[in-house]
Structure formats: structure tokens, C-alpha cells
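Minutes, project check-in
Item: structure for the 333-residue chain
Input as provided by the requester:
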Amino acid sequence: MNSKNIAIAIAVAALSKTTSNAQTVYSDSFSSAGDAANYNTFVTAGSTGPSSDATFGYDYSALGIPSAPNTTDGSTLGLRLRVDNLQTSVSTTVGAVEVVTKNLTLPSQYVFSVDVWGNYIGGTSIAASGSNGSTGAAVGIGTAGTSLQYIAGNDGLLVEAFHDNGGGVNNEYRVYTGNTHPTPATSSYYAAGTSATSASYTDPYYSFLGSHTAPAAQISLSAATQGGSTPVGIIGFAWHTMTVVQNGTTMTWAIDGHTIATVPDSAVTLAGNQISLGADDSGLAGNSTAINQLLNADIWDNALLVAMPEPSTYALAALGAAGLYIARRRQKS
């Protein structure tokens, strides 16, 4: 899917969000603890109990985080995922937590979007991955919903962005098709190209993500770890909207409207119709200190699944919706 088409598809999602629910298949702002009943939650084991947790209805203003970009009522309630924060050691090869929908049926063509904020505790500053900071925010599409979807195993399409610079050499942005991990060097999926560094935050392609500082409340709490600024090209300490667009031929993963990777449908076997949101820890270093538990977290808000209308319909609708979407994003930035 080219950049023009993905912009149209995202605009259609914005149109549905702002003017009508006629095309909406599923949406959730995760604003109530009771929302947990709508999901299956999977967590890897720690040395003496669960390594991670999922909290629905979490008030993320406690971390100084502003309202998510697609929130319309100023709420700061969402879904918090913490990975490997509850144990001093972890008994699995990769630590992970995931929530997965129940009873969804994916349309033949659709747009799925969700807001995500990646938070972590720094070392001498947030420029470093810090203590237990090598974690990523993951979206899974087409899982059966009966098992954990993470980098060590999944049954659909899994896309993941590590929100610090600890994702591993040239592995900041990851695509998994089932249990296969196509890299830029082994596939032509990545918009940044096919070089060995095309999935690294150091690639100039990802400069649109900029560099960010931690919220003032976090700096006040722990200036030693939350001072400084992030490297350019990572998603940490800012709201971003992740999107997966299925156009009937390919699935395109984008962040803030910028294509990250496009995967042919023929390259993916989907085991079901469910969508997952998760967090992985590739560093696998459990740390149960209070400051780690507070600051190492992914925040999710405003999940939306919209069925795509026929191309002629959404092309016309997008003419008005694209301007509305862009204006709204600028107001929230």
C-alpha cells in the first residue's frame, strides 16, 4: 500500500471516529477496570509468580502523561501493561504480557488503530535504555486468542516498536509472521529499505519520530534517571498512533501515518480473528523495585477497528476526513 492509500485509509478511520459509528467494528478506551472482562490476558512466569501485569482503567496522569491524541473528552484513563517489573528474576526465555480480544470477526478490509505511549526508567538519563528498559509495544492481528502473542511465538501477524534504544542491534522495529521474523535483510517489507540497519532507530527514515523528554512530573520524581532526552527515532515518551491497514492484499503497519512495513497476505497465516496488545522484554532482566514498577510501562488508549468501505467510497470520504484528521493531530501535538 503506498503512502497516498494508507493516508486515505487512516482518514477513513478518523471519519468513522469523529462523525459516525456506522463502520466501527470494535472500539475501546480501556477506561474502566471492568473492561478486563472483554479480554484474555496472558503473562509469562516470574521466579515466584507472574512477571508482569495488565491494568485497565489506569490513570496515566500519575506518570505526568497527557491525554492521548485521539481522546475526545480529556480523559487520562487507559490500559497499562508492565513487563518483568514484578519479579527480581524471570523464569522464561522472554518476558511478556498481552491482552487479546474475545469474539471479534475481522472484516475482509479494515483499519485498526490504537494510541500508545512507551515509558521507561533511564540509566544516567533517558538517553540510555536503563534498568529493565529494553521493552517493546506490540500489536497482534489475526490470532486465535488462546495463547500468548509475543516475539518468542505467535499465530498471526505481530508488529512491535521498542520504545527505548534497547531493542537490540538493528531490531528497533520488528515484524513477525507466525514464528518467522522477517528482517529488512531477508525481506522487502520495510519502508526504510533492505539494508541491515533499516529496522534500526538510527536509520534516517525514523527521524519523523523526533526526540523527546520525560514529563516534568517524572523528572521531579527522579531527575537522575528521567532527565535528558531520547535518541531520535524511537517512540519513547510521546504519544503515537499505531495503525494496521488490511486492504485485501497486504497488511501495512504505520506509526503516525508513516508506513513502517507492508506484509503480503500470502506471507501470513492467521489462526483467528482476534487482536492483541502486548509488551515484550527482550533484555529479560526482572526488577521489582518500586521506581521500576512505576516508570517501566506501556500505556494504550483509543483502540478502533473500522471496516473499510469500497475504494470509490472511501476515496471520496477521505477528501474531507484527511483534513479533519491532520488538523486534529496538530491540535493534540
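Outcome recorded: Residues 312-333 have pLDDT under 50 and may be disordered.
No further action items on this chain.
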